[in-house]
Structure prediction request, 557 residues.
Amino acid sequence: MVALVLTTVASWGIYALLGIGIVLVYRTSRVLNIASGEMAIFIGYVAATSIQYGLPFPVAVLFSMGAATVLGFVIFWFAIRGVMGEPPHVGLMITVGIAVILNGLMIVLFGGGMIAIPAGLPAFTTIGQVQLPTPDVVATIGAWFSIAVIAVIYRLTNLGLQMRAVAERVTLSAQRGLNVDRTVALSWIVGLLAAGLAGVLHGERSFVALSASAIGISALISCLIGGMDSLKGVVIAALIVAAAETLTARYIDPRYVLIAPVAILLVILIVRPWGLFGTVEEIRRV
Amino acid sequence: MTALLEVEGLEVVYGHVIRAIQGISFSVGEGKIVGLVGLNGAGKTTTVRAISGFLPTENVRITDGRIRFAGQSIARLRPYQAARLGIAFVPERDKVFDTLTVRENLEVALTATTLRGDEPGRCRRYRSIKDILDLFEALARRADQLSVFLSGGERQMLAIGACLLTAPRLLIVDEASLGLAPIMRRQVLDMLAQLNREFGLTVLIVDQDVGGVLSIADHGYILENGRVVFAGSREHLLQHGDVKEFYLGQKEDRERGYRDVKQYRRVRRWH
Ligand SMILES: Nc1ncnc2c1ncn2[C@@H]1O[C@H](COP(=O)(O)OP(=O)(O)OP(=O)(O)O)[C@@H](O)[C@H]1O
Ligand SMILES: [Mg+2]
Prediction:
């Protein structure tokens, strides 16, 4: 039972982290990132491959975060910068293209097979009386710590303030002296760091593989349920998605895992099309 | 001595077709208050937006003319670059961040621009959020509320306050008195005049209220259909018969019919 809760909390953290990345870049650049799952697993492959080359787990994670930073900047500079201000479907199509490219790169560069990202720790952690699977413990701590860091950046730092300003009014931000391109680029870098870390943690508790990009769909559904408005919304919605998936896998059939969140999404889109926490105005603006 | 801001033969086109500004020239001397007035659609907003800079994503281009600020050509600068040179801009609409608190609004302005520039003429009187909250009591009372709850006058104060934190050398206010009660309107104008008097802040003020603007401006330019139709010192404009009749609503002795007005406008437009 405790293990089941922990599994849910770990998935929750990973989806929330990935979802926060999606919301962040959506808010600053109005681009709905369909490719977050591919981005996550691509960075996961970077970590997995560096471990295969003999790097210890923490160093491999750092290295993969460096790769995420570069990838975030490259994606912003070559793909996003030009489409800011265009209608939303343009940005969305761009990210579909990015997903296809990343898929191809994962096959060419990493073979596209199933690779684990071993943290090099014992299989079980004993806390008091209970034995918990270490990979889930690591994923939970890693994901929630990162979420806290991003939340603090977003709410309390100058960078976060500038991101919120750009999210609301691009022109006014620029008129007040903000270099909007720089702020949006940084938000894509933070978004890629979040996605990459989610991919690494997912690989650490199971494995990376082309099919693992499906975590992006769970995260996207969390975002749509939560409304693209707030980080809080996506975190709460990610719990709903993670719980639905865990329960489906446990009590119905693991093959139906993706159906549960989609069903919830459909119900929510019918009842509250702007999401649980989004504002109506937000949808109109899009 | 050359002026702080010089606009020469400015031409601005929206979406490749609409020539909103058709060769406007004017200048703003350092330490002066200059008014840009005219009726709806005259091109006032387009002119000042061109000075503060368009975003590359906007469907509008400067197709001709020069804009010089402190001797430097700025026609191609992005808005944030113009802001960092000391051009502070209060737009007509969307002048505050609704989803941020009053304090955060001021913080954005404070952190976005550095006060490094040591050019003379930059107004450095206001350096901290507290300075602005002391200046506007109404804002101090609402410092931690979301700006979406502010009234029109409070928004104007917040926008001007944010601009003052960027150490402006030129403050451009579009529609300084739009939607304000007459008494608030007077207060905003008086405040701009006071900033100008006490700190030598150069102000370019845009308004439809010709009388109000001319009460504080040293110079005025009246725009119509993307052209300057009248220009001159305050005294000159206030004395001018046509300005009196058509923009200040004061009748000359001789009555003029609608036909006269139309004919007059046509002549003015193609002069
Ligand atoms: N985004 C736009 N796209 C196309 N045309 C525009 C746009 N904005 C303004 N125009 C046109 O440019 C001309 C000048 O508009 P502008 O907003 O500069 O006038 P204004 O003097 O500020 O008017 P107001 O007093 O109503 O604010 C108008 O004819 C308007 O139709
Ligand atoms: Mg206007």
